[in-house]
Design brief:
Two copies of one chain form a homodimer.
Chain A (H helix, E strand, L loop, with lengths): L12 H8 L3 H9 L6 E3 L2 E3 L2 H15 L4 H12 L5 H44 L4
The structure holds a DNA duplex (30 and 30 nucleotides).
GO molecular function, one term (chains A, B): DNA-binding transcription factor activity
Pfam family, one (chains A, B): MerR_1
Organism (chains A, B): Knoellia flava
Chain lengths: ~130, ~130
DNA sequence: CTTGACGTTGACGTCAACGTAAAGCAGCAT
DNA sequence: ATGCTGCTTTACGTTGACGTCAACGTCAAG
């Protein structure tokens, strides 16, 4: 039972890779680029909740089409030191830039979706005019 | 005023490139991949409204993180023949797939934005606790 | 008629994001 | 001890999306 701070569930590289639907090579690639930094038990990589969280953020960033180095600056932002006032102000500025970027994407996305809806409408009309 | 079908405004490659903020090499690359097919006046490329429309769609697709060959299938869809019933049904099916993809992206995007908002909130709280 | 300013076609270079093969160690089941 | 399985590093290959020449055509201006 030992109630120490043993929130220490860990995973192997195969486990996280399979869980997130990527290869171990991909996971290691992200480590090479400094996106995740698993500990080592001897020579073996040990992944914790923090690493899985970051991996999730990375993959979502990829689905959104961000390059990996940009993704790194984004998720590093979440872990950045925010002790001093100047640091916090810097972080808040970065947040604003990020939001502007994301909102541009959402506009593009919404435009694409409404166009698609209009196009579907036209197709359905065409279809309704075809007999049989 | 000569009312012929002279909706024939044209542009050169430099013009469209500059207008859309890309290089002529990029425009030619898209042509190599069959994403746009400008006519030729002799050997020179001639761009019309249709090409500009497609270029706009391509670049929006890129901002959304789609690969170029996927973008081609998407915008080709808009120009696909829809004469027969089977063709229309195929197109409608493709539209559904596209929409599912785009909506997944929007979910990711909204998640990212709400997380960002929460994070900003925390930063502002931290900031309010710092004197001076 | 030469000189730019643009246009054209190759062809090779580059960078990101991995894939893939080669070779080795580490534990442990037989 | 031996082999198997899973993890490791090293290193070169691949694909997508262009960049970057080089070498040449063309047409209006001087």
């Amino acid at each position: 039972m030992a109630s120490r701070s043993e929130d220490e569930q860990t995973w192997t590289i195969r486990e996280v890779a399979e869980e997130f639907g990527v290869t171990h090579r991909t996971v290691r690639h992200y480590e090479e680029l400094g996106l995740i930094t698993p500990e080592r038990r001897g020579t073996t990589r040990v992944y914790r909740r923090r690493d899985r969280t970051r991996l999730g953020l990375i993959l979502r960033g990829k689905r959104l089409g961000f390059p990996l180095d940009e993704i790194r600056t984004i998720i590093d932002l979440y872990d950045a030191p925010r002790g001093r006032r100047s640091q916090l102000e810097y972080v808040l500025g970065q947040i604003d830039e990020r939001r502007a970027d994301l909102e541009q994407r959402r506009r593009d996305l919404d435009d694409a979706l409404t166009e698609l809806a209009r196009f579907e409408e036209r197709c359905r009309e065409d279809l309704s005019r075809i007999p049989r």
